UniProtKB/TrEMBL annotation:
This is PhoX family phosphatase. It comes from Corynebacterium aurimucosum (strain ATCC 700975 / DSM 44827 / CIP 107346 / CN-1). SUPFAM superfamilies: NHL repeat (SSF101898). InterPro entries: PhoX.
Length: 698
């Protein structure tokens, strides 16, 4: 059946993301006009330029040697690997010196490919832990794609799993608790004969149940890293209709009141939960990302509200999923404040299935990719978060309350007390050396300094909230955070995704996934006038960047450098922490980040623009082999790699939207993963372990 959703355009985007993914995942955020049309002053216009410290470890490791082959070669036109075999040894060999890969990096890199399977290194095993529709709550039926009901779906594993967390079980050493978010639903691939113009009420309600989160008890398999799904009292589904409590400066204000919730305190559900984080107090943080797409736009009289809807890209006309047909709250003409109740960072206590999850409004409202916690020596909690749209910003929240080990009730209030900041940065190389090609400037680094600019201070316990933005009240800064950040001249980034803090060096890593409109020419030139900058030095950036910050975590100053300029290492525009580019895997569109127990950074990708499937990569961050990057696994065609979780015993990835291609439908599936045959592709969770040892060891 033909797809005729509102925005099913041909894919103009250079990444491999399909138009189906674009419509259902992010409401075509990649196609439309830029949401950020603000005219932020350039940092250098406001502050005197200063000499920035070069942020750590940029020494170039000279390991030339033309005989060495790429670890994970770029694909040729047929999608098969070119450039020779994989790096078979754990040694990085060059003509003059010989380097040994860092601990945890001893695996044979996986070649770029377009297979309809999860490809893992030799010597490793894999299993699917759970897939869309599998029972989560005891008594739920096994998945039957032709007989779905909303009542069943509320007890089964949701669609499009994204963030993944894993913690020890509180009272069973043979079990662990797995938790994840379900970002979005792709209805044309979920239902036979789906009519996007006229979804049935049951289909819409199955969509609501397909969103949210899963908490799942899993058992350990002795002698391996394998995990098995179990029923247990902690198993829980959270959906688009589960009650959440609003906490902080926006709670109870006129900006969040609706006819169903005249006090502005309780929200039904959570939407488009992308990545997240596990807190040191064992709760799950989850970012509400592209929430705009669920709302039918309309005529809004309130000027501020109308401006905000526009700033988030809410368009006039029906929504793609037509949820407004079955619940007025998804129609902004009828409920103009309902969108203000999404776009938050939510916190869930996975160990209490009866607990009401929280939306922390002190952390600001934007398209939250995630929330990741770092605790300073004095117990101050710092929460980093990116706003994943083109030319949006990086934020951090610094708590005024201190972390108290073992005091869950206290710790779950920390994100309601403190100050929200947005990042402003500048480069240290002359602007003429940043020509948009991605080639390094004369000082050998894309680097510079920055500062965190205060937006909002919250003291929820005493109901005291202070705006630091001229002309905006505290609740306006909380709800209209993008506009507040515009006003203080925040730095426009290339789609900030996950932000993670290195567990030992405490450096902060930011995935900047891509930005087609940065310095664009031709048709796209009018979409935004932002050109290449030292922090975003590639025009029409299609492969993304990974930034490294040395941050005074609780303070207001930082230095930064680009650790990775992603892409095909054969291209001059790429940079791998100074490592020999002949010996790294191609990587494109970095998204989710995680650290292993050795301090290697693991990067999952979304939208590989190099004609290969997305994958999971490990890169060394410190020492002589800093920048050595290897592909650990690839996911099936059309899928995005999410999660990930990496520990000594296992690697876990959430395989999101397998088979999501431009013309894919239920009837015309382009993937049959994971069940094979002619089966419907299902988003699923994969566990990988080494047959005889720890992950990444010889
Ligand atoms: Fe849902 Fe920013 O990716
Ligand atoms: Ca520089
Ligand atoms: Ca993501």
């Amino acid at each position: 059946m033909a797809l005729n959703g509102r925005n099913l355009l041909a894919n103009m985007f250079t990444s491999s993301r399909s138009s189906l993914t674009c419509t259902y995942k992010c409401g075509n955020a990649c196609f439309g006009e830029c949401e950020n049309t603000s005219d932020n002053p350039y940092f250098g216009d406001q502050f005197p330029r200063r000499t920035a410290l070069r942020a750590g470890g940029l020494a170039v490791v000279a390991v030339g040697g033309s005989s060495a082959l790429a670890a994970c070669a770029a694909p040729d036109d047929n999608g098969s690997a070119a450039g020779g075999s994989s790096n078979k040894t754990s040694e990085v060999k060059g003509s003059d010196i010989e380097l040994t890969s860092a601990e945890g990096m001893h695996f044979e890199a996986v070649d770029a490919n377009t297979k309809d399977e999860v490809v893992i290194p030799k010597g490793y095993e894999q299993t699917v832990l759970i897939a869309w529709g599998d029972p989560v709550i005891e008594g739920a039926p096994e998945f039957d794609v032709n007989n779905q009901t909303a009542a069943d779906a509320e007890k089964q594993f949701g669609f499009n799993n994204d963030f993944a967390g894993l913690i020890e079980h509180p009272d069973d050493k043979n079990r662990m608790i797995y938790m994840c978010s379900h970002e979005y639903t792709t209805e044309p691939m979920m239902f036979p004969n789906y009519d996007p113009e006229n979804p049935t009420e049951e289909q819409v309600k199955i969509g609501w149940a397909g969103h949210g989160h899963t908490i799942l008890e899993v058992s350990k398999v002795k002698g391996s890293g394998e995990l098995k799904r179990e029923f247990g009292p902690l198993n829980r589904r959270i959906t688009a209709t589960t009650p959440f409590t609003l906490v902080g400066p926006a709670k109870g204000t006129d900006l969040v009141k609706t006819s169903a919730d005249p006090k502005g305190e309780k929200v039904l559900g959570t939407l488009n939960n992308c990545s997240g984080g596990v807190t040191p107090w064992n709760t799950m943080l989850s970012g509400e990302e592209n929430f705009d797409q669920y709302f039918a736009g309309g005529d809004i009289k309130d000027e501020k509200a109308a401006e905000s809807l526009k700033r988030f890209g809410i368009e006039e006309g029906p929504s793609d999923r037509k949820w407004e047909k079955y619940d007025d709250r998804f129609d902004v003409t009828k409920e103009p404040n309902e969108p203000n109740r999404f776009g938050w960072l939510v916190e869930i206590n996975p160990l209490d299935p009866k607990s009401t999850p929280i939306k922390h409004t002190a952390v600001g409202r934007f398209k939250h990719e995630a929330g990741n916690i770092h605790i300073t020596k004095d117990g101050t909690v710092v929460c980093y978060s990116g706003d994943d749209s083109r030319f949006e910003y990086v934020y951090k929240f610094v708590s005024s309350k201190k972390y108290k080990e073992g005091d869950l009730e206290h710790n779950m209030t920390i994100l309601d007390h403190g100050t929200l900041y947005v990042a402003k940065m500048e480069g240290n190389s002359p602007e003429k050396e940043i020509d948009g090609s991605g080639v390094l400037p004369e000082d050998g680094a894309f680097d510079g300094s920055g500062e965190w600019v205060k937006l909002l201070t919250s003291d929820t316990e005493n109901n005291k909230f202070e705006s630091h933005v001229d002309g905006m009240s505290a609740e306006e800064v909380a709800v209209f955070t993008r506009e507040a950040a515009d006003k203080v001249g925040a730095t426009k980034m290339d789609r900030p995704e996950d932000v993670e803090v290195h567990p030992e060096t405490e450096k902060v890593y930011i995935a900047l996934t891509n930005n087609k409109y940065r310095g664009a020419t031709g048709e796209n030139a009018k979409k935004n006038k932002e050109d290449a900058k030292e922090w975003a030095p590639v025009k029409e950036n299609k492969n993304g960047l990974v930034m490294e910050l040395e941050d005074d975590h609780a303070g207001e100053k930082f230095t930064w450098n680009l650790f990775l300029v992603c892409g095909d290492p054969r291209e001059a525009s790429t940079y791998f922490g100074g490592f020999d580019k002949e010996k790294v895997s191609p990587i494109s569109c970095p998204d989710n980040l995680a650290f292993d127990n050795h301090g290697n950074l693991w990067i999952s990708t979304d939208g590989n623009a190099l004609d290969s499937n997305d994958g999971l990569y490990a890169v060394t961050t410190e020492g002589e082999t800093r920048g050595e990057l290897k592909c650990f696994l690839t996911v099936p065609a059309g899928a995005e790699t999410c999660g990930p979780i990496v520990d000594d015993d296992r690697v876990m990835v959430n395989v999101q939207h397998p088979g999501e291609a431009d013309d894919a439908t239920f009837e015309n599936a382009t993937s049959h993963w994971p069940d094979g045959g002619k089966s419907t592709p299902r988003p699923a969770v994969v566990v990988v372990w080494k047959k005889d040892g720890k992950i990444g060891t010889e």
